[in-house]
Amino acid sequence: MKEAIRDIIDGELFSKFLAAGIIGMIIDNLLLFTMHNHTSIHVVIAKVVSAETSIAAMFLINDRWTFKQQNKRSKFRRFLRSNGVRLFGLGVGTAAFYTFYLMEIPLIIANIMGIGTGFIFNYFFENLLTWEKIEIAEVKEWILNYTA
Q1: C-alpha span between 63 and 73 (Å, rounded)
Q2: Mind listing the pLDDT tens digit for each residue in 107-130?
Q3: What DSSP assignment string belongs to 70-117?
Q4: Radius of gyration over alpha carbons of the chain, in Å?
Q5: How far apart (Å, rounded) are the C-alpha atoms in residues 55 and 137?
Q6: What tens digit of pLDDT does each residue of 4-42 get?
Q7: No. of helices (H) and no. of strands (E), the chain
């Protein structure tokens, strides 16, 4: 378990994940800005649509580049698992974004702050669950050992 966590903290892996995240953030911001300023879609709905589009793009980048050696499952299963993991990150990030937006922080700044809020969560759980750096059984065992 400790070795897997050390692997997750690896600088090269983190840098690649961050690069994919920056591309995703650009996609997210462009779509959010466009939908917010040129449609009547509610800002939270626009945020969810822009986020899901960027999640799909980041998955493809991470699958082909960041975690290329960890591709054990079918692409479709990895995509479903990645989306499941990122739904939690999206919830955290969207709640943060909307809170910042209600505080009258400019739209794109609020969105970047929300994305940053969910980034760490997504990084660790994508590593653990989507690309299986650690099996779920190991996580359960670790939790049970350290909470007992």
Answers
A1: 11
A2: 999 989 998 888 878 887 887 777
A3: G--S-HHHHHHHHHHHHHHHHHHHHHHHHHHHHTT--HHHHHHHHHHH
A4: 16
A5: 26
A6: 556 656 677 788 888 999 999 999 999 999 999 999 999
A7: 6, 0
